[in-house]
Model the fold of this input.
Amino acid sequence: MRALARVLPSDLDAEAIAARAELPFPLVDVPLEACDLDGFRRLWRAIMSHAEDPTLPFELGAKLPFGAYEVIDYLTSASPSMGGALEQLARYFGLITPWFRWELQPDLEPPRIRLISEHRGPEENLIFVQYILGVTFSRLRSAAARPLEFVDVSLAIPEPRSRERHEAFFACPLHYGTATSEVVMTRASWEAPSRRHEPGLRDVLERHAEDLMQQVRPDDSLAPIRVEIQRQLTEGAPKLGAVATALAMRSRTLPRRLRDEGSTIQQLVADDFVEGVIFS
Done:
């Protein structure tokens, strides 16, 4: 969150954004306890309420300082190739967010990289699809020992008024409003060596990432549901219908999703993730 605050455009009113997001000002000094998923989401909503360009999340993601994502940033940069970096990112992306996951298809020609949204609504997809792609592929471009070339890009967001930012970065055909966001890159780009490849450091960081993943609960696929319930609890006792709507799910789908994962709302409450839910 602090790193994001450092790359906000100077023409945006940072103090007004902080106030709307109910975060302390200045944003670069936000206390660590406020830097949670809910605070991050409130910050983004506040930013977009002040921004005129809906592609701003892509630009801010591309400008985010290296190291903001700590072990993930250093682990991917220490990988031998861009494909190797993407494989590490996909494996440990759960350390960053439970809302999205990567699906790689390296055996296809050319290779494809898909970003899968875990039940986020259109507003949050507009923000986070662009932000994640901006962070990810700007990191790869900086790490690659030769220029990256993209073949085709599909974005699961509405077509913006201007494609300029996306076209300037990817320099390939763009498609909007697709069911899934997908980046197709050349085989040479997938196999492009990393200028920062360090096998020893990679092994150490991989062990550290594995340790961190062990701390993630086995039912982490339910994390988006827990996060949304916890967010709504700050505004009062949420109803299941409101939770389902926020997650772009049907009311009857939510209980079925929990049942498929071997869980129930009651179990989440018993596990002390949420309290005071109205079961209706």
The first strand starts at residue 100 and ends at 105. The chain has 14 helices and five strands.
